[in-house]
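Hi team,

Filling in the usual template for the complex we talked about on Friday. All components are listed, including any nucleic acid strands or ligand strings, so the model treats them as one assembly.

SUBMITTER: L.P.
PURPOSE: interface mapping
COMPONENTS: four
RESIDUES: 872
SEQUENCES:
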Amino acid sequence: MSKKNAREKLMQELLAPEYRLKCEYAIHIIEVKLEMLMEQFYVERGRPVISSITSRIKTVDSIERKLRKKNLPVDFATAEGKLSDLVGVRATCFFEDDIYKLAERLTAQEDVVLIREKDYMKKPKANGYQSLHLTVEVPIYTQEGCEKKRVEIQFRTVAMDFWAQLDYQLCYKKNIEEKTSRQIQEKLSKYAKEIAGIDRQMMRLRKQIDKLGTERDV
Amino acid sequence: MSKKNAREKLMQELLAPEYRLKCEYAIHIIEVKLEMLMEQFYVERGRPVISSITSRIKTVDSIERKLRKKNLPVDFATAEGKLSDLVGVRATCFFEDDIYKLAERLTAQEDVVLIREKDYMKKPKANGYQSLHLTVEVPIYTQEGCEKKRVEIQFRTVAMDFWAQLDYQLCYKKNIEEKTSRQIQEKLSKYAKEIAGIDRQMMRLRKQIDKLGTERDV
Amino acid sequence: MSKKNAREKLMQELLAPEYRLKCEYAIHIIEVKLEMLMEQFYVERGRPVISSITSRIKTVDSIERKLRKKNLPVDFATAEGKLSDLVGVRATCFFEDDIYKLAERLTAQEDVVLIREKDYMKKPKANGYQSLHLTVEVPIYTQEGCEKKRVEIQFRTVAMDFWAQLDYQLCYKKNIEEKTSRQIQEKLSKYAKEIAGIDRQMMRLRKQIDKLGTERDV
Amino acid sequence: MSKKNAREKLMQELLAPEYRLKCEYAIHIIEVKLEMLMEQFYVERGRPVISSITSRIKTVDSIERKLRKKNLPVDFATAEGKLSDLVGVRATCFFEDDIYKLAERLTAQEDVVLIREKDYMKKPKANGYQSLHLTVEVPIYTQEGCEKKRVEIQFRTVAMDFWAQLDYQLCYKKNIEEKTSRQIQEKLSKYAKEIAGIDRQMMRLRKQIDKLGTERDV
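RESULT (copied from the run log):
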């Protein structure tokens, strides 16, 4: 099949309402679970742990690009089988320790099956990127029965999200001189480390403040 | 226990975050399912079937009143065991036939267990009230495991919802003379029948229009 | 200019962010005003008066069709000058008398200038359509200064909105036999009258119920 | 008047629907303006400038506390006359330079009158707090005429908002030892400076990346 035909066939299947409805269902399920955990944590800790929850269904363009980059055939079955981020949910949190607790409680739920975990907070990417990525499977019930759907959940701190904004801006610039690009990358990577450092300082201070609360009640 | 104490204990349990979070989770699950069905139907029929979805958790006052009216003990266990509408979701739809189709698809889903059905559309209440009430059970997953939660789903037409507005207004009037009250009730009951008649006429006309669509493609 | 070129130029201007942002601003202003009135009325009457508020910016297709139908040149200046419904807001209300009160209070506000009123409730269209259409102008403030923007506000009852749904469905059917079309139109027109009749009966009953409230306090 | 009576009278006036509706109207107006600016900036810069917009009406408790602290009489007229933050809107932005541009465009609008500006970004508070506070007046149109309403708008960066979260947590702790409190305050103040430093580094890098975009088009 020609490159153009492959793309068009893929597009047709990815834009079919049946596919999109299932993706949206999976997103809803994860969002509801995160919102409930957010409320539980608020009750337990007396402070908010999640700043915002966003989601997206991967676009046809982005899927095609990723398949070609990985030298994989450009078709729907390969996309569904090989790419784990067709459906994505992102939770931006205030502190790193809350992120691990949220991830733990979410994956402890019987209907959430953890498929893979990539911890870019413990081991940041070369460019400085820090997040916790979980690939999970949730059941989608329709009148035809039950189907498993994969979702990639990204957890990151507010500060890292701010950093990622800038990294994302840079990705969309083109024809940048090799030297300029390298120089900006180096700065971004350096600032990522500084931000992570402040995140950790702030978390330690928060723990100290948390403890004050407990002592007060004595 | 005194009447006041019983009420206070019930209130405490009903306002506990743990109880409310589970109620909200159940509401979310049903809402997501209805939204998904709404989108599926739109794709299949080319027209909206649900006008609006609302929900509520039954208030302490309303629970206490209902338990007393039924001569039941005023406590949390009795409320949970005997009242099936502690958690309620309402879908207001354009046509009666869509309501039955929605109810059918919803209860066909593996994780939705139909406990009871009261069809006040086929058999209206004495005052004229028409709705389809389903009591269902859905699983709530938390880190402690899986728990079943009951939800009452009310389906009604837009026209019947309009009627119910007025019926609801009347309920909140007090010290009405016996004669006036009876007279208004009679009118309400008469208009309910007229509205149901128009609903059915409109549905027949809609079916005729739907059919035109099919023929056009031939 | 060729028909295709005229359309493309029009499209370009209608999709320009500057145009759309001003339309959205005008919509927001009217929506906020309606929401505030809705709350005021609720406080005064103890019952909701508006069921829902929706809005839309007229599409390029729809604008082009309307200009051609009116034998007007297909360009941006003509659209802005001659069509008063480029920006539209619709308030669906429970009762006719509330609609007139809402319209009165809205147009009494200093920054809302009433340009034209078409009362299809008092004088329904031939097909049975009933609504109150107001064309108003509101000031849009940007850093460049103040600009007047026209908005068409449609008020209709819940029952008439239900009717309009069906009328709208019919519009999108094509190649219907003359006889069938006429027959359906006649039914629609007949049902519109019946719905308007019920609307009025219900309003009278509501007034009777309203009065009970007043007497109670004596 | 006794302390209790003064409080109750104030509460009555602050909870009156008329007062609250006007506050909400003013909030809506500012929110709509900020949303429009957010969209304009996105079109111009190809990147988001506002991360989130929130608002609040000052609570009775908070008003009473502030009046007593300032040794002012606890009544409605004094609150309205002397406190400029009864109605508050907060815009959390990614970068400091965008904040100044937003503030400039907002106050350039004819119907927004700037009453006072406090720039805690240029001159941070002793505890490290950094924000730009604008007190503005906007016209509120009702059927009774036009009234001026004061709103405090706070602009801050995402990073400073994260910092403020922790500062806020600390405020709600009680009976903390003098030494502990001072020590935490010092850390908070130090981190505020570090965060501001990173904010500025990131802004410089963003400007460098922005410039790349311009060059690309050449």
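MY TAKE: The mean pLDDT of chain C is 91. The beta strands of chain C are 50-57, 87-93, 113-119, 132-142, 145-157.

Thanks, L.
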